[in-house]
Specification:
Strand order of the largest sheet: 1-3-2
Number of strands: 3
Oligomer: single chain
Number of domains: 2
Number of helices: 11
Distance between the termini: 29 Å
């Protein structure tokens, strides 16, 4: 299974939070902040998202190492310099909804953790490097970068799927399966509304692939059929269901 790049609709989502707010159950003494749009930092973040997009376009043009050495490293260095020594837990969120969830997680921790949610560029840059390394079949390097992206945005569907792909290529089927399950669960939260069905279907297909490798054909069928409920007639799921039929027919004939 080869995952598909999600395209400009996903990467151009400049989702800084619309307001600064504190979750209702935040504990006293816990400082939580959402970056305000319209500020200098927000303008910088928008420019950084555009730099990540530049890098993704370079990958599509076959300039993979140049994308890593150029736009992705540039954005990563800027954010690591700005936030790398922060005493607060930093999250790189797509928008208000996931930002508030991340901040509430910190606020409800024992002991509570002061945290801040910024825009998506930092995590996107790590994801971009991980995506690039996957394209070069440097899966261990991809895993390092994608783990960094998920540390900043643990509920992100795209980052979970990309990491799932890396582990899939290393034939670590159960680890990959768990990541694709997480990607499915988080799609409604972190994906743009117009991409939820597509990303959910991709996450289900990732599960199906791993389940086939684990010889769990019934569960694999369920995953592909769930994708078909999201996108009727989806050709890759139909093809995989046909493949499962063929494998099971051969297994039955060999008994």
């Amino acid at each position: 299974m080869k995952r598909a790049w999600q395209g400009m609709a996903w990467v151009s989502m400049l989702a800084l939070a619309a307001c600064a707010s504190t979750p209702e159950k935040a504990k006293p003494g816990t400082r939580i902040v959402i970056a305000q749009p319209g500020s200098k930092n927000a303008a910088d973040a928008d420019a950084d998202v555009r730099r990540v997009v530049d890098g993704l376009q370079m990958i599509q043009a076959g300039q993979i190492q140049a994308a890593i050495d150029g736009p992705f490293d540039e954005v990563v260095h800027r954010y690591e310099s700005r936030y790398g020594n922060s005493k607060k837990k930093i999250y790189s969120a797509r928008g208000t909804e996931d930002a508030l969830i991340y901040l509430a997680m910190s606020a409800s921790a024992k002991p509570p953790v002061s945290s801040e949610a910024i825009g998506p560029a930092w995590a996107m840059a790590y994801w971009g490097r991980g995506y690039a390394y996957n394209e070069m079949a440097r899966y261990d390097d991809a895993i390092v970068e994608l783990r960094k992206a998920l540390a900043l945005a643990p509920y992100d569907t795209q980052y979970n799927m990309e990491l799932g792909f890396a582990y899939e290529q290393k034939k670590q089927w159960n680890t990959s399966l768990d990541l694709f399950k997480s990607a499915e669960a988080f799609a409604q939260l972190t994906a743009p509304a117009e991409e939820v069905a597509d990303l959910t279907c991709k996450a289900l297909r990732g599960q199906g692939f791993n389940l086939v490798e684990l010889h769990q054909y019934g569960a694999a069928r369920d995953a592909y059929n769930a994708c078909l409920k999201k996108i009727p007639g989806e050709p890759k799921s139909l093809g995989e269901l046909q493949y499962i039929d063929e494998v099971q027919a051969k297994n039955q004939a060999g008994k």
